[in-house]
C-alpha cells in the first residue's frame, strides 16, 4: 500500500512536470521577433555556452534569451538537463525559466529578465557599488542563502549548484538576488552526501579545496562558495584579492577587535560606513565560517539562514 502510494505520488509529480514542460514550450518565431532576430543591439553578454539576448514578448514582458551556439551531444544533454531540472524549481531567489524552444539545430532557453544584471557588475564597479548600501547588501546575502537552502533542502530534488559565483547571481529591479546558471552540467541530483566527479566544473577562487584538489563535492562545497560570495559582497573585493593578501585571516580578528572599538570603517567597503555594525560583523563571521578548510566544520545552509536572521550576537568568538 505504501509502495502504491509512493508510485502514485511519483506519477502525479511526473504528470505535473510534464504539464509544466508543455506549458514552457515557445515558438521559435516568437523568440526571433522578441529579440529582433537576435540582433547585436540586444546582446546582453556571452556565456560559457552561447549568447544571451534581451527580448520583449508580445505581451510586453521582458525576457532574457540564452541561445546555444552549437548543439553537440553534450550540449543537447545539458539543454535537456536544464529544462527538466529547472521546470521543477520555483523560488524567488532562483532565476525562473519561462520557456524553451528547439528548432533544427537551435536550442533556446527563455528566462525572466533581471534588470540589474549580474552581481559582479554591481559589487566590483566603483560607481555602482557606491550606491549599494548595507541594507541592500544584506538583502542580497540573505536572498542568496535562501536560494541555496532551497536547492539543498527544500526543493523536491536535492541539488548542489557547483558554480556559485558573483556572475551567476542576477539582480532584479528591486535588487533581489536570483541564482542562475544551474542546470548546464552543474546541477547534481543528490543521492549521496558526497560525490566524486571526473570533470570539475566550477570556478577557482570560489571552489572548495576538496573539490578543487580531489574532485570531491557535497552541499558543503556550495557553502564554501557562498562564504566567498559573502566576503566579496561585504568587502567589495574580489576573492583573488581576499586570498592573496592574507587579509582573510586577519579579517575576523580585526572585526572582533574593531567591534569592541565600535568602528570597522577601515575593514569594509566605504559605502558601508552607515551600515549596521553588528550585521556587518555577523556576515563577515558567517562568511569565514563557510570558507573553513575542512568541509565538516562549515555550517549547513540551514544554519547559515538561521544565523543570518538571528538578531542576537551570540556567535562564538574565534
Ligand atoms: P556566464 O556563463 O559568463 O555566467 P551567462 O551565460 O549566464 O554568462 O550570461 C551572460 C551575461 O548575460 C551575464 O553576465 C548577464 O549580464 C546577462 N544575463 C544572463 N541572464 C540574464 C537574465 N536572466 N537577465 C538579465 N541579464 C542576464
From TrEMBL:
It is found in: Membrane. One of its GO terms (cellular component) is plasma membrane. The keyword Cytoplasm does not apply. GO terms for molecular function: ATP binding; protein serine/threonine kinase activity. The keyword Iron-sulfur does not apply. Its main location: membrane. Keywords: ATP-binding, Glycoprotein, Kinase, Membrane, Nucleotide-binding, Phosphoprotein, Receptor, Repeat, Serine/threonine-protein kinase, Signal, Transferase, Transmembrane, Transmembrane helix. Residues 38-314 form the Protein kinase domain. One of its GO terms (biological process) is response to abscisic acid. ATP binds at residue 66. This is Cysteine-rich receptor-like protein kinase 29. It comes from Manihot esculenta.
Amino acid at each position: 500500500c505504501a509502495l502504491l502510494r509512493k508510485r502514485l505520488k511519483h506519477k502525479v509529480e511526473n504528470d505535473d512536470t510534464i504539464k509544466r514542460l508543455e506549458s514552457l514550450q515557445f515558438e521559435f518565431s516568437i523568440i526571433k521577433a522578441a529579440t529582433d532576430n537576435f540582433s547585436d543591439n540586444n546582446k546582453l553578454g556571452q556565456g560559457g555556452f552561447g549568447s544571451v539576448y534581451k527580448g520583449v514578448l508580445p505581451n510586453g514582458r521582458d525576457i532574457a534569451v540564452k541561445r546555444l551556439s552549437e548543439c553537440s551531444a553534450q550540449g543537447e544533454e545539458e539543454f535537456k538537463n536544464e529544462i527538466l531540472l529547472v521546470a521543477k524549481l520555483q523560488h524567488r531567489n532562483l532565476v525562473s525559466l519561462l520557456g524553451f524552444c528547439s528548432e533544427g539545430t537551435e536550442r533556446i532557453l527563455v528566462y525572466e529578465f533581471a534588470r540589474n544584471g549580474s552581481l559582479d557588475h554591481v559589487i566590483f564597479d566603483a560607481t555602482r557599488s557606491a550606491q549599494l548600501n548595507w541594507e541592500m547588501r544584506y538583502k542580497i546575502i540573505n536572498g542568496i542563502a535562501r536560494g541555496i537552502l532551497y536547492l539543498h533542502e527544500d526543493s523536491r530534488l536535492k541539488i548542489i549548484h557547483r558554480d556559485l559565483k558573483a556572475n551567476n547571481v542576477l539582480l532584479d529591479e528591486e535588487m533581489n538576488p536570483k541564482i542562475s546558471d544551474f542546470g548546464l552540467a552543474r546541477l547534481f541530483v543528490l543521492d549521496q552526501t558526497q560525490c566524486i566527479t571526473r570533470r570539475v566544473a566550477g570556478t577557482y577562487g570560489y571552489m572548495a579545496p576538496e573539490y578543487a584538489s580531489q574532485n570531491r563535492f557535497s552541499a558543503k562545497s556550495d557553502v564554501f562558495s557562498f562564504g566567498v560570495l559573502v566576503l566579496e559582497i561585504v568587502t567589495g573585493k574580489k576573492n583573488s584579492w581576499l586570498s592573496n593578501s592574507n587579509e582573510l585571516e586577519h579579517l575576523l580578528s580585526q572585526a572582533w577587535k574593531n567591534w569592541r572599538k565600535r568602528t570597522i570603517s577601515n575593514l569594509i567597503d566605504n559605502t558601508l560606513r552607515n551600515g549596521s555594525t553588528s550585521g556587518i560583523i555577523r556576515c563577515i563571521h558567517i562568511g569565514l565560517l563557510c570558507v573553513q578548510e575542512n568541509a565538516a566544520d562549515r555550517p549547513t545552509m540551514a544554519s547559515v539562514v538561521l544565523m543570518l536572521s538571528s538578531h542576537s550576537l551570540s556567535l562564538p568568538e574565534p
